[in-house]
TrEMBL record:
This is Hef nuclease. GO terms for molecular function: hydrolase activity. Keywords: Hydrolase. Residues 145-338 form the Helicase C-terminal domain. PANTHER family: SNF2/RAD54 HELICASE FAMILY. It comes from Rikenella microfusus. PROSITE patterns: HELICASE_CTER. Pfam families: Helicase_C.
């Protein structure tokens, strides 16, 4: 939060946005960092440990810059990435100065004297705390969420009662996570159990396009059985078919409820041979959810979808109330982010009544699912819902 410690009001104004002061911007950024850290902790202990070490490195970079009387504050440049890839401090500084000159934005180089000395002493205190946390977490070799996953991998996710694809397909599983470190950790364990894993991220999605299609797309002309499990980040949440599988695990719950439905839509597609899609969701811990309120946010948005569109598949919890949409009687809130969409749907219903009725009569009805899973000592819960396949 270096912006808070500028001595000059001119320097502060340089980074203000519209009506946002540097105090407001700094506090918001700090809150975002807190939320991201909790999200990483909820994803996996491996991901959280990596984030702690990154924070340790970033804090040390700022201390080094202050000690060298060369402080870069650059909204347009990833300063920490420049320090990570450069062979030494001086080279990194030269590279950053070159980029500042090229971008001509708000990125600047400051002197230590431009900031209050209190900032340096507070950074040293932060670094001491972070060092202690890193040492503690480096001694930790367990993860109760991963332990719960291990316990239920074969008994639930590969249970032949639900994961038994028709035809000649082997059982398949789709897993979504938001963290690369979590992806790698999951893949290592799954492979240790004898399953063949395809790992997909933004770095390799394009080159694996044909592998994904051949092994997980029920509509593929050329079909292969090289993999049993696909573990992926959000990069496969849309634009791809994975419906040779009918079991999906959301190892991390995304903030955006639409993203959750898009994930499930990868396996709930026309062409699936299975009558049901089985969805498993890991809830965050009680302690973590108190900080980020993810369950409440996801549930509220999904319930709004059910109310507006007559959604008949539960996505996140059996507590979701399914209903038929009635746009004529739906109350509109001027502050609601859905008001625009409701208005558009009403217009479509009025202008194209026959087409509207045809779409509403499509058969996508759901048979009620059942909550499954278990809460361990730390509070993780895996929840299962069932959907009638398209």
């Amino acid at each position: 939060m270096p912006l808070l410690f500028f001595k000059s009001e001119e320097h502060k104004k340089l980074y203000e946005k519209r009506n946002l002061t540097v105090e407001t911007i700094s506090k918001r950024l700090a809150r975002i960092m807190q939320i991201l850290l909790v999200k990483r902790l909820e994803s996996s202990f491996t991901a959280f440990r990596r984030s702690l070490h990154n924070l340790q490195r970033y804090t040390q970079n700022m201390i080094d810059m202050l000690e060298a009387d060369c402080v870069f504050i650059c909204p347009d440049i990833d300063v920490n990435a420049e320090f990570a890839k450069a062979p030494d401090f001086e080279t990194a500084c030269r590279n950053i100065r070159t980029k500042i000159a090229q971008k001509k934005g708000k990125s600047r180089q400051f002197r230590r004297s431009d900031l209050h000395e209190e900032y340096f002493s507070l950074l040293l205190q932060d670094k001491k705390r972070i060092d202690r946390l890193c040492a503690l977490w480096d001694r930790n070799d367990f993860d109760p969420k991963l332990d719960a996953f291990k316990e239920h991998l074969q008994s639930e996710l590969f249970n032949p009662r639900i994961n038994n694809p028709g035809g000649y397909d082997r059982p398949k599983l789709v897993i979504f996570t938001e963290a690369l470190d979590t992806l790698d950790s999951l893949a290592r364990h799954i492979e240790s159990k004898g399953y063949r894993v395809l790992k997909v991220s933004a770095a390799n999605r394009d080159e694996l396009q044909q592998e994904i299609k051949a092994n997980f797309d029920a509509n593929a002309t050329v079909r292969r059985d090289d993999y049993d499990v696909i573990v992926t980040t959000e990069v496969l949440a849309e634009g791809v078919n994975l419906h040779r599988a009918n079991v999906i695990l959301n190892y991390d719950t995304p903030w955006n409820a639409t993203r959750l439905m898009q994930r499930i839509g990868r396996v709930n597609r026309i062409g699936s041979k299975e009558e049901f899609v089985h969805v498993f969701n890991f809830y965050p811990t009680v302690q973590g959810n108190e900080q980020i309120r993810l369950i409440e946010n996801a549930y509220a948005k999904l319930q709004a979808f059910h109310t507006m569109f007559g959604e008949d598949n539960r996505v996140f919890s059996e507590l979701e109330q399914l209903s038929e949409a009635d746009f004529n009687n739906l109350m509109e809130d001027e502050e609601s982010p859905f008001s625009t969409y409701i208005a558009d749907l009403k217009t479509f219903q009025k202008d194209h009544p026959e087409r509207y009725k045809e779409l509403m009569d499509l058969e996508f009805r759901e048979l009620g699912g059942q909550i499954r899973g278990q809460q361990d000592g730390v509070g993780w819960v895996a929840v299962k819902t069932e959907q009638r396949a398209c």
